[in-house]
Design a protein that fits this description.
Elements: E1 6-12, H1 20-38, E2 44-46, E3 51-52, E4 55-56, E5 60-65, H2 67-74, E6 86-88, E7 92-93, E8 100-101, E9 103-106, H3 112-123, H4 127-133, E10 146-150, E11 157-164, E12 175-176, E13 182-183, E14 187-188
Antiparallel strand pairs: 1-5, 1-6, 1-7, 2-5, 3-4, 8-14, 9-11, 10-11, 12-13
């Protein structure tokens, strides 16, 4: 059972050398590595200034968890190299009457070409056979905000699409992934 009683806001500062998207990608990558190293499933994230129009996660990454879990994370050197690019607020208690919501990863099969290549490898089909089985219409254009990351295992760049679910009066129990995204648990929303 994950208790999200406290939070810490990390705000990206404007930077003339690096884009907002680049800094957010670096911040989320560093957080992911720290949560994986700690084997943590008790720290969640949200993006309180996210927007669908324009599509952005905003400049604030909010960490949610128990006081002890957040202190353990902040004690790690995971923000090394980012301290000049972010402002870290003090650990604070969550407002007692805050509603909750799940913040989840959404994955999309976005490229018909990539799906065809995979099918050709798996089934030994020609490009024409794969194209007949996988039409261009399978491509979906996600309209969710995302952060661009690079896989540590494959080196491939990918988009981590983030959806903020509907608000609800009570917390949902569960855990969080090593990206801090919901695996059943909700985070306070305020």
């Amino acid at each position: 059972m994950t208790m999200t009683t406290h939070y810490i806001d990390i705000t990206l500062l404007p930077d003339p050398e690096f884009s907002h998207a680049h800094l957010l990608g670096a911040l989320v990558s560093k957080l992911h590595r720290a949560l994986a190293q700690l084997q943590s499933s008790d720290i969640g994230i949200s993006f309180p200034r996210h927007s669908l129009r324009p599509r952005t996660l905003g400049a604030v990454l909010r960490l949610h968890g128990s006081e002890a879990a957040l202190q353990r994370l902040i004690a790690q050197p995971w923000l090394q190299g980012m301290r000049d690019h972010v402002q870290i607020a003090d650990l604070a208690p969550v407002p007692p009457s805050a509603p909750h919501r799940q913040v989840v990863r959404r994955q999309f099969k976005t490229s018909a070409e990539r799906l065809r290549r995979r099918r050709m490898q798996r089934k030994g089909e020609t490009l024409e056979q794969a194209a007949a089985a996988i039409p261009d219409s399978v491509e979906r254009r996600p309209e969710l905000p995302f952060v661009q990351l690079r896989s540590a295992s494959t080196g491939q760049s990918f988009c981590l699409f983030v959806a903020h679910g509907p608000t609800q009066a009570t917390a949902l129990q569960g855990g969080f992934s090593t990206y801090g995204l919901s695996q059943g648990a909700s985070v306070p929303w305020f």
